[in-house]
Amino acid sequence: MRTNILLNDELVEEAFKYSQTITTKKELVETALREYVNTEKEKISKN
Question: According to the model, what pLDDT value does residue 45 have?
Fold first, then answer.
């Protein structure tokens, strides 16, 4: 899915500081979405 989004520049830069392997904003957003989904799945499975 193609989309245009405005990202918080400071938050993006901070996220890149913690990343050793992520080099693009696309990778950063995809990783964040995967982690969000996994976290929510874990919450549901614990109930």
Answer: 94
